[in-house]
Specification:
Elements (H helix, E strand, L loop, with lengths): L1 E5 L6 H10 L5 E4 L10 H9 L5 E3 L7 H8 L5 E3 L3 E5 L2 E6 L9 H13 L4 E6 L10 E2 L3 E2 L3 H10 L3 E3 L10 E4 L2 E4 L6 E4 L1
Parallel strand pairs: 1-2, 2-3, 3-4, 6-7, 7-10, 10-12
Antiparallel strand pairs: 1-13, 5-6, 8-9, 11-12
């Protein structure tokens, strides 16, 4: 299975058009949030992806609210709001948790991820969050150090997902790292194709 993963497009037309073009090569699209600037034009952007007739899993970033994302996706067939939810495809289990990106600890994520981990027994997990995990190349900012989330890191250490897709910190776009066996990717606004 091939995924086209992207994050932090912030309504950039050039980036979105590039993603639409290269999406022909993949099976599923995955957006880890901040597809817009402060929610502006969310529905019209999602409709462009809907026309592809390929499943697109999306979570809100810190530029879209939970409510905006729910409302924009509710009548779309192919664009699925994965925030606090799961999507199962064959041997794979996708788990999404959006929003924020600023907390070093997230009790809500911890609670929901425990339930998901039980439901995903025996599946290969793909974790999608807006925030990066703590202590990797993806959350290390010059002069500020690590700014990721410890709760996400703990889940990765315990569950060992196949892949973790995240973003939020534009400075680390394109970065890849590992926690144990888990590959962690910030695919940036122009995307990265990942073959599972």
């Amino acid at each position: 299975m091939k995924l086209l993963c992207f994050v932090d497009t912030h309504s950039n037309t050039k980036a979105i058009n590039h993603l639409l073009k290269i999406s022909k090569k993949v099976d599923i699209l995955v957006c880890a949030g901040d597809i817009t600037n402060w929610g502006e034009g969310l529905k019209s952007i999602l409709k462009k992806f809907e026309k592809l007739k390929k499943i697109m899993l999306i979570i809100p970033g810190n530029h879209e609210s939970e409510e905006e994302m729910h409302e924009a996706c509710k009548n779309l067939k192919y664009v699925i709001n994965l925030h606090k939810g799961a999507y199962f495809e064959g041997e794979f289990a996708f788990f999404g948790f959006g929003g924020g990106g600023f907390a070093m600890e997230d009790k809500n994520f911890e609670k929901i991820s425990k339930k998901f981990f039980k439901d995903a027994k025996g599946k290969k997990i793909i974790l999608i969050t807006h925030a990066p995990p703590f202590g990797t190349k993806l959350d290390n900012l010059p002069g500020l150090g690590h700014r990721g989330c410890m709760s996400i890191r703990k889940f990765i250490e315990d569950a060992q997902p196949l892949v973790h897709i995240c973003g939020h910190l534009h400075e680390t776009a394109g970065s890849v790292d590992k926690i144990g066996k888990t590959i962690i990717v910030n695919p940036g606004p122009h995307g990265r194709i990942i073959e599972l």
